[in-house]
Structure formats: structure tokens, C-alpha cells
Write a structure and sequence with these properties.
Elements lengths: L17 E3 L4 E4 L4 E5 L15 H6 L8 E4 L1 H7 L3 E6 L11 H14 L10 H8 L6 E5 L3 H13 L2 E7 L4 H8 L4 E5 L3 H13 L4 E3 L10 H23 L7 E5 L4 H10 L12 E7 L4 H8 L25 H7 L2 E5 L1 H13 L6 H14 L2 H6 L7 E6 L11
Parallel strand pairs: 5-13, 6-7, 6-9, 7-8, 10-11, 10-13, 11-12
Antiparallel strand pairs: 1-2, 2-3, 3-12, 4-5
This protein binds pyridoxal-5'-phosphate.
């Protein structure tokens, strides 16, 4: 197989039969699934997050950078130079990355309610200012991790929290939210409907502030701040890769639900402050095959809503791309794939064997890269070579969403 990775097709024949259409879409007929490539994406430019986000997080109680692992074994099996895993398994004591977004957004939203929004407010200042007043409740919908982060932030600040969840999410995710003293509201509906229900509840309550990690027309400011908050992950990564003697990744893999996290990936690596081509990696999005809202939108060239069902990758089980993410992802994402729950479970186990703590959403990055590399056209479209430096963003711990739940 020469340069190509050795395994990864779960069925079908090697090499897969492909059709590359005029708009760059790659269709893999052998497995009945499609991937997407945009060869112009590395030329896209967007606005990076403000520089003071990391400084804000560093001053929050409990801040510590997450670990960056290197796996020579994965580099060997994937046929690339080096593979790193950014392990978001413990963030401010929580088992997923979400608190970096929620904390920055809550802080910005509360600062706007003071007489001096531009003051350099810390979380502690805001707790002193707003806490214990009994006046405000933070409201959100979640598949688990975002809601726990909002509830945790509310608790740190002495505010109330009401968190709406699809009833079908895992037991551990619900327990995690309850453990933050939040009011948990279970709704027997998919995530996108739960967002609507939470929004209606927040609209009806003058003491409520909606803190949602996805945007829609008319609700864009708080999600934009959440995306800015995620930039801390990438600033840490820059420093960690520099310590390893590297300028940056050549390939960056991000799991995608509503697309806010990968919007932050794009904001960082397509930021107007990064002009040199060598600093612009290929960006790969990974979604569950049962919730491919970004892939379907990229293929259609416009936002497309998809019906969602059940997947172990609860945080990625979303039917709509965030409105503020869409134009950035349309222009700036090089490649998109979907994976099955079985492929994902195999990746959870492979990472566990390598002593990396990745839950189902976190391991999606590895499964998605394996999936993309199984198609030589995708590998080529992402400009991958035997020397490429790959970073897999692993977004949650096994504890956030145990596979046996
Ligand atoms: C663990 C985990 N990974 C990835 C994502 C995807 O992030 P986004 O919905 O911003 O695309 C989520 C979202 O909830 C998540 O909980």
C-alpha cells in the first residue's frame, strides 16, 4: 500500500471507488459514505479571538493547561511524521473542554451588565459583584458537557442554573449536571428541540440569562463569546508544540457537533494574524454518521438541517450548524468526514490502550482521521505527507460519557 495507512476500512474493498465532482466533493462509493474536500480552504482568512482570553483563564481558580500527548505508535500506523493528542479530559476540574467557552462568555455577559464593561473583570470580581444576589439564573440546553460547564460557572459565581437535556443522554452526564446544584430539566426530544424549549423558558423568565453554545438568527453574541473562550485550547497548543520544537500542526482534527469548537479551530488557524502558508494546517471535521449537519451543509453549499437519532457521541448529536460558524466553516474547512459508533468505540479503546483518556466525542478525532486516510483522495486533498504533524483534539474524558452508560 506504499504511502497509505494499512488498515481502517471496516468493510468494502481497497482501494475505494471514488467520484470527485466539480465542487471538490469526494464520494466513496465502496462504503456508501461520503467525505468532503475544499482545496481552497487554506486561503481563507478570519478574525482571531482577542489576545486576553488566555490571560483571563489563567486568573480563574483551578486553571491548568490540559496535557498534550505524543504517540509515535499512531504516527507509525497513520503513516505520518508525528501525532499529538490534546487531551481535554480535565478542564477546571470538569471532564470536558467546555468550561473555557462558558466561563469567558458568562464573564463577558456579566461585564456588560456593569457600568464598566471594558474593565478587566476576573471571575472572582464578578462573583463578588453578582453572587448571592439570588437574582439571576443561567439557562442552557446541552447534550451534557456544556450544561455542566454553565452550571459549574453559575455555582462558582453564586448564581442559579437551569439546564435542559434530551432525556436520552447518559446517566453520568445527568449526574454531573446535578452535582453542580443545577436544576436539571429532562425533555423527551432531540437536542435541537431541547434548545428551543430552553430558549422559550429563558424568554419567559426575566431573571434568566440564556448561555447557549450555538447561534441562530437573533442570538449570536453569547455563542460568539463562547467560541472566543475556546481559543485558550489553541494558545496552549501553540506553546506546547513550540516546546516540542514545532511551528504548528500540518493537520488539525476537530470533532463537530454544532460547529462552535471547529469555528474556534478555524478562527485560530485561519486568523488574519497568521499569514504564512506554513502556519496554516489542513482542518478536518469529524461528525457521527447519524448527525452529519456540517458535512451535509458543506456538500449542499448552504446550511442544511439533518434529523438526528441515537449515537454514543452525545456531544456531537446535533442537527444544525451554528449560524455564526457556518460562513467560517464553509470557507475555511479543508475536509469533513463522518464515522460510525463502532469506529468510534474502536478509537476509544485504542486511545485507552495508549493511556489517553478520551470519551466517545474525544476519540472521534482519531476515528475520523483513520476514516479520511482510508481514502487516498482525502489524504491528498489534505496535503498529508509522511512528515506531517497531526494534532487530534480529544474533547472529553471517558468519565464524561462512559461507553458502558
Ligand atoms: C465532548 C464534546 N466534544 C465536541 C463537541 C462539539 O462541539 P460543537 O458542538 O461546538 O461542535 C461537544 C459539544 O457538546 C462536546 O461535548
Amino acid at each position: 500500500m506504499g504511502d497509505h495507512p494499512q488498515i481502517f476500512l471496516t468493510g468494502g474493498r481497497w482501494p475505494p471507488k471514488r467520484h470527485v465532482s466539480h465542487n471538490g466533493q469526494v464520494t466513496d462509493y465502496s462504503s456508501g459514505r461520503t467525505g468532503y474536500i475544499n482545496s481552497a480552504a487554506r486561503g481563507a482568512t478570519t478574525t482571531p479571538a482577542p489576545a486576553d482570553v488566555l490571560r483571563f483563564h489563567r486568573r480563574m481558580p483551578g486553571y491548568a493547561p490540559t496535557r498534550l500527548h505524543e504517540s509515535a505508535e499512531l504516527a507509525g500506523t497513520l503513516g505520518v511524521g508525528r501525532v499529538f493528542i490534546k487531551e481535554e479530559a480535565v478542564r477546571f476540574g470538569l471532564p470536558a473542554f467546555k468550561m473555557v467557552g462558558a466561563s469567558w462568555a458568562i464573564h463577558r455577559a456579566l461585564a456588560e451588565r456593569t457600568e464598566d464593561p471594558d474593565f478587566d473583570w476576573t471571575f472572582d470580581d464578578l462573583a463578588e459583584r453578582f453572587g448571592g444576589t439570588g437574582g439571576m439564573t443561567l439557562v442552557c440546553a446541552t447534550d451534557g458537557n456544556h450544561g455542566r460547564a454553565v452550571a459549574h460557572g453559575a455555582r462558582m459565581l453564586g448564581l442559579g442554573a437551569r439546564v435542559f437535556v434530551p432525556a436520552q443522554i447518559g446517566r453520568r452526564a445527568k449526574e454531573g449536571i446535578r452535582s453542580e446544584n443545577a436544576d436539571l430539566v429532562e425533555v423527551d426530544a432531540p437536542y435541537d428541540d431541547v434548545v428551543m424549549e430552553a430558549t422559550a423558558a429563558a424568554d419567559a423568565d426575566p431573571a434568566a440569562m440564556m448561555v447557549q453554545d450555538t447561534a441562530w438568527e437573533g442570538y449570536e453574541q453569547i455563542p460568539a463569546w463562547i467560541v472566543e473562550g475556546y481559543s485558550t485550547i489553541f494558545r496552549e497548543l501553540d506553546a506546547q508544540l513550540a516546546d516540542a520544537g514545532l511551528e504548528g500542526p500540518d493537520v488539525m482534527v476537530t470533532p463537530c457537533g454544532v460547529g462552535s469548537l471547529i469555528q474556534a479551530t478555524a478562527a485560530h488557524y485561519r486568523g488574519s494574524d497568521r499569514s504564512a502558508d506554513s502556519l496554516k494546517p489542513s482542518l478536518l471535521s469529524v461528525e457521527p454518521d447519524g448527525a452529519p449537519c456540517l458535512l451535509e451543509s458543506l456538500k449542499a453549499g448552504r446550511p442544511v438541517a439533518v434529523a438526528t437519532g441515537h449515537t454514543r457521541m452525545a456531544g456531537l448529536n446535533c442537527g444544525n450548524v451554528s449560524t455564526i460558524a457556518w460562513p467560517i466553516l464553509r470557507d475555511g474547512i479543508d475536509a469533513a468526514v463522518t464515522i460510525t459508533d463502532d469506529e468510534d468505540l474502536a478509537a476509544v479503546k485504542e486511545l485507552e490502550r495508549l493511556q489517553i483518556d478520551a470519551g466517545p466525542c474525544g476519540a472521534a478525532s482519531l476515528a475520523g482521521l483513520q476514516r479520511a486516510f482510508a481514502d487516498p483522495a482525502m489524504r491528498e486533498g489534505m496535503a498529508v505527507t509522511g512528515q506531517s504533524v497531526v494534532v487530534l483534539l480529544s474533547t472529553e474524558s471517558r468519565e464524561a460519557n462512559p461507553v458502558e452508560d
